[in-house]
Amino acid sequence: MIQRILxxxxxxxxxxxxxxxxxxxxxxxxxxxxxxxxxxxxxVKWLNGDDPETRLLLEEVTTLKWKRILGDSKxxxxxxxxRIADIGLKLKLITDQIPEVQVVASGSSAFELAxxxxxxxxxxxxxxxxxxxxxxEMEAHHGFVEEYKRIPERLVYGYYPEVxxxxxxEQAVLSQLMDSFCTKTF
Length: 186
Fold this sequence. Notes:
Blueprint: H1 5-13, E1 19-23, H2 30-38, E2 44-48, H3 52-57, H4 63-70, E3 75-79, H5 87-97, E4 102-107, H6 110-117, E5 125-129, H7 135-142, H8 144-149, H9 151-157, H10 161-164, H11 170-182
Parallel strand pairs: 1-4, 1-5, 2-3, 3-4
């Protein structure tokens, strides 16, 4: 996996009394970064807002219900959080009432997630934006010479992780990503 600069910044903010929000466009590596941070960690509760059962479970959540959902977990990772109704208030409830639990939420729709959490989590969050890979991250991964050689193709195809991780297939992968972004149905 390509080491992301944000990984260390987020690690430094864990268990400091605030929720951590990871926002950014689709396919920039938010879920991959969450796995890098928390796979293998004990006491992590993973929830996904894309899952209808998760959305139903969190419809009318109270502090007591959160405690039952979380059990002994010390970290809550909520991916695709923007899909959860009133997510800002629900995360505020954990942050205020269950301070021993670290909340980490991600969302592909950065503006939507930001709008839903900004007011309820004012002063209770660290917000980070994850963008496609950077030259610095790729240089750290491949080395200066190798990444320098790839500048011409990077200028054409960019730094989306899926594109960068499939050398020789950049055009096809980028085409698929563009089709998915442009033909998204509502």
